[in-house]
Amino acid sequence: MQGAEYACSALTVEDLVEMTDPAHVIRADVIRDLLLGRHGELDPRGVRVSGARIVDRLDLDHVTAAAGVELLGCVITEPITAEYAVLPRLNLRGSRTTALHADGLRITGELILERVRARWDGDKGTIRLILAHIGGQLDLSDAEITNTGGAAVLADRLHVEADVFLRRTHASGAGTIGAARLVNARIGGQLECSDTRTINTTGPAVLADSIRVGNNLSLIDVQAAGSGDLGTVRLVNARVGGQLQWSGGKVVNTSGPALIADGIHVDTSMAIRDLNASGSDAKGTVQLPAARVDGQIGWPTGSWPRVPPAPW
Question: Which of 37 and 231 is assigned the larger pLDDT?
Answer without folding.
Answer: 231
